């Protein structure tokens, strides 16, 4: 989309002022080691300042690595929803673009020294570090929000009620018929994360039968003031969100026009949080 716009505007520019050579944004992805400076890890995020392809202009962007890499018996490798962060420590970037960690092996107290070349699946797309694990990425619009130093966030829900997608489950023990919107956002309903984005959070009751909670109220907090929490009417966060909690609304127990069943984090800085 963005690409097309750039192409058309450059094309029409070239028609009008033929003498000026058009600066064509780089279409091909570039290597981290060749295009980026100040490359480092912050939590499980890879951060770098990469050339946009227009002169010396750079964009600072970030990629969440833990959802893209796994630890298998002390060796890290590419895997969607991998979660290496939970079983590796002392991770750092070496040799410009390789992730080096000390990772645990099942049943052993010791770790193994393991390295993965990030150039294999993360590239610079016109200033944005993005993964190609899901196919050629769409280059997002450039944000001016800096990559935060603290990625943590918390949510508390209120005006909640249970539901089930299975007609054979008896939910009368938890189902309220009053839809009580005076119920506050309680801290015992907290969901918190140290640094992870979520594609879709659905709130399951802590019982063996899979029964879920919907909520008409939510309070959000994030020290970065740079996460928007999108709310959906379904547990898979399909379709368009019907509402959201923006940084300016943090700390308040926001009442939605309808019950929410799924929440997705939208990072407001340049972030590949897939
Ligand atoms: C460091 O990077 C260079 C160039 O990409 C590569 O040839 C070399 O094997 C790498 N060294 C290690 C230890 O990964
Ligand atoms: C792990 O291996 C890397 C690359 O081979 C090396 O640079 C680093 O010093 C090693 N780290 C430890 C703790 O042995
Ligand atoms: C309570 O909310 C559910 C949907 O969340 C709706 O189907 C139901 O009609 C509501 N009940 C009342 C009494 O408003
Ligand atoms: C609604 O929730 C409030 C606060 O939790 C509670 O005091 C009140 O009794 C509830 N009302 C109904 C009708 O359940």
Helices and strands, with pairings:
Layout: H1 2-16, H2 32-35, E1 36-42, E2 45-51, E3 58-64, E4 69-72, E5 75-78, E6 88-94, E7 98-104, E8 111-117, E9 122-125, E10 128-131, E11 153-163, E12 191-193, E13 203-204, E14 212-221, E15 227-232, E16 243-245, E17 254-260, E18 262-267, E19 271-272
Parallel strand pairs: 3-19
Antiparallel strand pairs: 1-2, 2-3, 4-5, 6-7, 7-8, 9-10, 11-12, 11-14, 13-14, 14-17, 15-16, 15-18
The structure holds 2-acetamido-2-deoxy-beta-D-glucopyranose (4 copies).
One 2-acetamido-2-deoxy-beta-D-glucopyranose binds next to loops.
Q: What features would you highlight for this structure?
A:
274 residues, mainly beta, HIV-inactivating Protein, Cyanovirin-n, 2 domains, five-stranded antiparallel sheet, four-stranded mixed sheet, 2 helices, 7% helix, globular, disordered N terminus, binds 2-acetamido-2-deoxy-beta-D-glucopyranose
